[in-house]
Amino acid sequence: MVRYIALKGLYDLEKTIGSGGFAKVKLATHIATGEKVAIKIMDKISLGDDLPRVKLEVQALKTLLHQHICRLYQVIETDSHYFMVIEYCSGGELFDHIGIEKNRLSETESRKFFRQIVSAVAYLHSLGYAHRDLKPENVLLDREENLKLIDFGLCAKPKNGIDSHLQTSCGSPTYAAPELILGKKYLGSEVDIWSMGVLLYALLCGFLPFDDNSIENLYRKILSGKYDEPSWLSSSSKRLIRAMLQIDPKKRITIQELCNHPWITAGFLNPVSFVHKTNFEKDDDVLSTMSAICGEHASDIWRKLVKSDRTDYRTATYLLLLDRKLRGLSLRISPSA
Ligand SMILES: COc1cc(O)cc(Nc2ccc(C(=O)Nc3ccccc3)c(OCCC[NH3+])c2)c1
């Protein structure tokens, strides 16, 4: 196993859990706390002119604090590599969780998960970001089956706000909105709604609304906006999916309407809110655990934490200890930290 000097003493790398274009994701252990993390490793050579995307994603993730958005703990940059230390989603991909035999979820279970996706995307849009690559592989679960959105490598924050047009064609065609595959100017918020429509369809049906091995046929199907409506779909589900898979983006349901849609609120007391984690909450138990080991005063540790750019080893240690505490585990830390 290639050892990276930059991780020595901080993280022990384990198996590869994902690999894509210019990155691979490995399972790792945060040595000081023994907690599992995922580390996305990118080498700068193969990143090429995608290098600025890493900085854009890191910048976005430092701002995005939400219970259904996978957490960035630490960023390590060397001359040759970027390492993004990320929350480990031990539940794996949501769609693997659906399992092969059933291959689709009940309306109630689909609603539980879909509300979490809507909450994360509504929060994202409220801060002016669009994900632009919403697809099953980017929807994971943590150990308590809470949903986590991952991979903001294509996310965009248009400089004139979420309502200003984008042009870059990106994301996977299967989940891409008609205006995106036509290369038209599009709104990030509108293409995210379309992709969420594809996700909801896949949850409720167990297969994709538009699928074809030939890219031309796939495009034709997407641009036709026609897809099967299996007999098991309730009329309320059909209405919601139709509202999301509108070819004309101006006729497509908006994220606000989605949060209040009858299908979304059925069985729940309230619409989807995108209340999110506050910023760093100060925890004295965690701070005293850290000060017991590194000898600094808890108040100094906290001051440095708040002042830091929140992507250093101290931040990762604090957040992982906080996570252990929230799970009712002991706050242990190994002296080598
Ligand atoms: C903000 O979250 C991000 C940003 C990003 O650029 C990339 C990722 N990638 C991740 C993060 C975590 C996992 C993971 O924990 N996977 C996993 C865990 C247990 C069983 C199976 C998978 C990850 O997995 C890669 C494969 C998922 N399609 C990717 C997160």
Low-confidence stretches: none
Net shape? globular
Number of helices: 13
Structural class category: alpha+beta
Give the strand order, joined by hyphens, for the main sheet.
1-2-3-5-4
Global mean pLDDT: 92
Structure ligands: the ligand COc1cc(O)cc(Nc2ccc(C(=O)Nc3ccccc3)c(OCCC[NH3+])c2)c1
Percent range for helical residues? 25-40%
Number of E-state strands:
8
Radius of gyration: 21 Å
Q: What is the end-to-end distance?
A: 23 Å
Q: Strand-and-helix sequence, N→C?
A: EEEHHEEEHHEEHHHHHHHHH
Strand percent estimate = 5-15%
Largest sheet: 5 strands, antiparallel
Produce a short descriptive summary:
With about 325 residues, this protein is an alpha+beta fold. Helices cover about 40% and strands about 15% of the residues. It has 13 helices and eight strands.
